[in-house]
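Researcher: Re-running this chain for the archive, since the previous output was lost when a drive failed. Same request as before.
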Amino acid sequence: QDTLFSYDIQTVPQGLLVTIDEKPGKSPAKQKTANSGNVSDPTLEDLIDSSEEALSANTQSQDKNVTAAEAMQDSFQFSGYKSTRISVDFYKIDLHNVFRLFRQISGINLIVDEAVNGSLTLALNDVPWDFALDIILNLKGLKKEERHNTIVIYPAKKEFAWPERASDNLSFEADVEVIEQEALIIQQATNQPAEIMQAKELLRRAKIEESNNDIEDAAAFYEQAFKLWPKNVKISNKLAALYLVDLRINAKAVYFAKESLKIDKKNYQAALYAAIGSANMDQISAAMEFFSQSINGDPPMKEALISYAAFSERKGQPEAALKLLNRYSEIYSDTVDTMISRARVLDAMGQAEKATNQYKTLLYSGYQLTPGLKKYIHGR
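Model: Regenerated structure tokens:
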């Protein structure tokens, strides 16, 4: 039987491509076939049927693949993995480089413990990156802790705890009490008088000047702030210290120390400032009154005891000085200053044997003594 025509079948992405090649000089047959609607060729019909079946099967296969992909995606989402999907193919890659890749993909801060080491071979296609991360962690015996856009990776046998403050700040559960307290603080700040807000700005400028060692300008700003905020004992204490120690203006030091004592009678630091300032101005009775007030703390301040003892010694009151030095020794450990002061006071009181023993005690105490002090001790 003569062949009606030759044909060729090729597989293409859309299915099958059928190419029909008509032989030259067969146009009458073609016209006959075209004009006779009831005449059919078995070979052509079989070819068309087989092509339709192949296309149908391919479409069904594509539908099945789409359905499977959708099902896989739903499965990931149901399991809680909703991150960006990736395809990876690792071959003996260092773990730290793997985690760096996840850092670039996710944009999340990632911290890896230095004890984590080794390499990995892994091939995954179209999976969420956090799913791939969990697989790696399970394979390598690692754990992760995640809070506030940060993941910490460490060996499973190792314990990890977020810093206490970080744990509080990064907690996902809102602490109602903390929120209410913060709201109250904000409200209180908002309700502050304009004078206090202005005083705070002056304090800020004063601290800047002080850090630049411009003490006079700093003191001027502190004074302006104190005028606006006269109940703030910290400002008056600061002024008393600046004028006493840095600027050596005793009168102003005493004035601001007294202002602090008006606010708080138990401000022993202010009492000491007032005592030293008064002593420097040779106001003996006022100095003694303030010194007595400065050592009323429980326990009394070290500086108050030593300063009061030195003042008593200079004013010819060795018994009072010795009593203060002994009180210091009972509460705190002796220093070079207290030991030399005690020996000097005993020497001035004419108690040569006790003074000598005190000098020897100082020499053998182990304290580093200057050559001048050693010469003085040996001389006595």
